[in-house]
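Sample entry (177 residues):
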Amino acid sequence: MSSVALFTWSYKTMKQPIPVADGTYEYAILLGAKVESDGRPSLTLQYRLKEAIKYLKSYPHVNVIVSGGKGLDEPISEAEAMYTFLVESGIEEYRIIREEQATSTYENLLYSKKLLPTNTKNVTLITSDFHCARAKILANKLDLEVDIVASKTPKIVEQKLHIREQFALIKTLILGK
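Predicted structure, serialized as tokens:
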């Protein structure tokens, strides 16, 4: 497959419609993103968190796994930053499960799946709009059926993240994760 064909495929894949979450599933997985050096969620993560808060307040029966480890340049794990943000925003602590080992989208889903009750196959993913297609592909590879809450991508990083995501999709196609 040529590089032009791969980029065309990745672009079209990112533009496909996604199943929008409606509160049907009992568990959601909130995928992490960078934490700033002062411990604040990055702008991209803040957008995800704001969508998560709206969703969790609309569907109080839904529990959420916040998934993301601690990068070398992060003072705390992404999961810890998300947990704190959600609690400070009024989400009950007992509804939040932390997964603090993941360093990639594949690991977010793999490790989060282990925290779900046995035989749970349906979950809601909460992530950025540019990230939905790959997150869904990886979840399906792990035998998870998903619907999605998609946050907007901050305009300041939109082009960079969309291009990076196209490369990540191609990697997923080739390597399977």
